[in-house]
Amino acid sequence: MTIATRRAAPPDAVDFLGIDALLSDEERLIRDTVRGFVRERVLPDVATWFEEGYLPRELGRELGKLGLLGMHLSGYDCPGASAVAYGIACLELEAGDAGVRSFASVQGSLAMYAIYRWGSEEQKREYLPRMARGEAIGCFGLTEPDFGSNPAGMRTFARRDGSDWILNGTKMWITNGSIADVAIVWANSDDGIVGFAVPTNTKGFSASNIHRKISLRASITSELVLQDVRLPESARLPLANGLGGPLACLNEARFGIIWGAMGSARTCYETALEYSKTRVQFDRPIGGFQLTQEKLANMLLELGKGTLLALHLGRKKDEGTLHSSQVSFGKLNNVREALAIAREARTILGANGVTLEYPVIRHMNNLESVLTYEGTSEVHTLVIGAQITGIPAFT
Prior knowledge:
Elements: H1 25-42, H2 46-52, H3 59-65, E1 74-75, E2 78-79, H4 83-96, H5 98-118, H6 121-132, E3 138-141, E4 157-161, E5 164-175, E6 182-187, E7 194-199, E8 205-209, E9 221-232, H7 244-278, E10 280-281, E11 284-285, H8 290-319, H9 324-349, H10 360-370, H11 377-389
Parallel strand pairs: 3-6
Antiparallel strand pairs: 1-2, 4-5, 5-9, 6-7, 8-9, 10-11
């Protein structure tokens, strides 16, 4: 008995495992649409944005027109796309720059998702359609100067005053903070942790940009200060009670990071691969040297595995079977490996690797932030450790 075989086509140098064939026609269309937007609207200017520490606010409306803000939410003018489709969009946005993906992630997976899951019907109708169109920008105020990985210790406090609430506190490292129209603010109270949708023009609310950062420079990062901010009961997110509220939002954002990190990794790998074919040393392209090929092969291994991992977790999320500890697994692995790919790509480019003429150092610097935001590598390691041993080791 013989088995007929077909001659296998040579693998693509980037999509070596043929992952593209695992996507639906609709998913490929979303990929191509977002990739085209990044190529035409982001790549020509992103090095300048990074250098100047700037992200144009009007980019929000453009992302909204493409249906990329809150794209995985349903109703209220949100597209209701699949988790995989959202992940693909995050990958392509971060292939341009993590700052652009962070804008969309904070808008959709943190601010909009908080309102979508924990807000009142009135809040959803008031905010979500405008945010989906990019007409209103949101930010997510959880992290404080002294409380990052331990948000339960936050000092921002909300006290009742008749039928109103009075908020006092400070939030730090808040993406979109100074350009936001509404801030989702989490605070301790006598009833535990509560959340609020705070219009940023409310008296006592202020936001100032954080300067001198050398990572995520094409992103607005701010400090929020709340001084006797008076809010009506209607501003409180009525369904959010306890730390589970903000943590559920963070889990949504982490899912996008699993994909986004592979966008940074892909750009760094592609850049290093092309550079190795044209950079000549000792009368031959450096891509012809064994050590360079080893670097490229190792980068490709982790890019392929990380992208398959993202797709697998995306399918599980669409099926409703994705556990939060598996999100930690994906975030820990993919960001760590993307950073390793970026650093290796930098070595292939040599001195050119540290200039903004090439995207590698920009992605490498950005990934240093992605490594620790939305949960540090240490925290995600302990989440996985607690899940597999049944013994929490956080304290």
